[in-house]
Amino acid sequence: MDWRGDVPFSADPFNEIDGLILSQFCYVILDGVVPESFSEEISFPEAYRSYNADDVDPKCRILTFEQDNLLFRKLAESRRFRGTTLCGYVSDTEHSEDMQFSAITFRLCDGSGFVAFRGTDGTVTGWKEDFNLSYMQQTAGQQRAIEYINEAFAEGECPIRLGGHSKGGNSAIYSSLFCDESIRQRITNIYSYDGPGFRDEIISSEIYQKMLPRIRSFIPEASIVGMLLGSGSDPKIVKTSVNGIKQHYAYYWELRRNRFVPADRLKKSGDVINKAISGLLSDFSDTEREIFTDSLFEILKAPDKETLKEITKLSSYPAIIKAISKLRPEQQAVMKEAFKKIAQNGTGAFFKPQ
Q: Which InterPro entries match (predicted)?
């Protein structure tokens, strides 16, 4: 935004950095600021004047909260996004369905539409939905994503772009596969930024292979989330300014002008974790994956907390330990086997020749 925020789309068409900016902006809590309706629109400057960061519940403030607020200000001040309007903001969490879903639609001054799907927030429900991707044919959030773009573009003929960071990238791709045919034909690009992949039956499907040329996938050097499950293509690896899990956060991704700075290959630290998790997923049946997921999040919900930030506090540990001891025998058996597989695959990755 500092480097290219004054360059209009007429001089430099929409690119991969624009897609990330709008996908990251989707993390901003906009209840009461951006209309839920697709027929009512508001500009970035108008939305920013209505937004008050102090009104956001502390429980909803993710790790990038301050950076997202700064991004909001820069979008409101930029020439590039001056003619962009926002509409169709939704944000729902349904604990009974293990669903955390949020999306927003942008009407760009180049005549196109862009839908951004929010990635996993800090809620336990949001993280569980990520794990559900490994064994469910369709999650509640994926179904909502399909319904969302069908409603957003039911009228008109504008070109459509979709995008999202983390789980939002998965939602963007999935909804492009199963939305109405008339809408699918108008989709020009789908951007996934370190988003998890899909089960084999989806990747091998005719519709996925047909949409593959329109999918633009990007992952950081030590990607973990973006390497979960398969994608059927080689994503572009982006150079980052930090190490470890922090690389998942887009503010550490490096760029030059209107493109990401490419990295040669994944770092070994990410490869280790990927092999460990991949080993678990490949060796477990769908039933075992479901038991593992339900057991893990049954433990995490034991302290009666809603966010992972709260769970990681020391005061939550006694409740977590007690919950583990109360698991059913079959749950304990699967959990033990899961951690055994993670340890085995992780150790093997460390000693694999480079």
A: AB_hydrolase_fold, Mbeg1-like
